[in-house]
Prior knowledge:
The protein is mostly helical. It is built from 19 helices and ten strands.
Amino acid sequence: MTQSDYRIERDSMGELRVPSDALYGAQTQRAVDNFPVSGIRLPQRFIQAGVLIKRAAAATNRELGLLDPALADAIVKACDRLLEELPMEQFPVDVFQTGSGTSSNMNLNEVIAALASRGGTPVHPNDHVNMCQSSNDVIPGAIHLSAALALEQQLLPSLKQLSDRIKQRAETLDGVCKTGRTHLMDAMPIRMDQELNAWASQVDQGIERIQECRRRVWQLPLGGTAVGTGINAHPEFSRRILQRLSQDTGLALTAKPSLMEGLSSQDSAVELSGQLRVTAISLHKIANDLRWMNSGPLAGLGEIELTALQPGSSIMPGKVNPVIPEAVMMVSAQVIGNDASIAMAGQSGNFQLNTMLPLIAYNLLQSIELLANAAKLLAEKAVADFKVQEENLKQRLSMNPILVAALNPLVGYEKAAAICKQAYREGRAVVDVAEEQTSLSRGELEKLLDPVLLTLGGIQGVAAKKK
């Protein structure tokens, strides 16, 4: 590095060389030098949440008479500029850094101070940008704020899109009957609209679970400063900054009931991550069902045909694979892994501070983004346009001996089992064997064993016999 490539910056620990084109200062550079761990940086959405907090803090401190209006205005304008176009290269700190996220908080302070100082009045990263704040309340606050915005802007709309798409397809498949499966083995018949509506119910319940814990995610510990006592913060700072952030974001943000709890634990993030894990498992189930239903085309189930999106093999011409379900299933695995990591990180609330905050921030936001993208892909590239192989469904239904369960109320379990086994053994339709082995007429049997009627529930055989 030549002398023109860097400048000398100073902090409380002394002098340090910083790239000449960097907006950040010495503390950020120390973190870059100290933590060359992964090359993974905190997500853009997290940095944006931090900028929103810094902007609201400056405006609040001006309102409280703590910060000179000219300095406050300079900070607000610098934050506005960053929100318009965020130069992520100016936020180079590795996720695997100091557990409080102090390096990232100071990175924000230094960049904002550098931009604000361009107006001619020096703005100090600690004394001015960080006024009434600490890394210990800003970083947990940014975790909650970024997650809350990601839920509203990304995940919840995507899950709603998936649920709506599944319900739309279910309406078009009303009356299409197929063999149900338990243990991957033939079971009683179901309709495809019933199967799809069960998927939609999973997604809807995932939305409900996320919404139920959303209120706690909207609680921020801003104003708690270093240990939750509010040291060096104005008594009105917490209420007023949250009021301002609520106006800026459209979210009903409130203070943590205990600011000390908000600094010392990450229980709400752990709770949200757990609900994201449930949602991931639901998407995995739906994707895996689609994959099995699409299997074949000759040696699998062959119930549906997913849209061909790309060649499936570098050696087998013509092979097409269920790439969207597979991608969604990998997302599920990643989210489950992220949840395990967040759970372990949540255990690191030692006395008055959790010391794995950057890891929680990264994994939580990644899980939200992955699930949002996966839900949209599943909706529009798998559920929306798969084709139903109705002839295959009808053939399997006609040869399904498990239909004999409908005769249990009339002939008893043992007799029905014997009919089922004979039908399996001889490869015959159950109605033909039942006609030979019972006193029921062909017409009665066809009515009793009608797959569509069997999807309506109840004891069809008893009801039919009474008629």
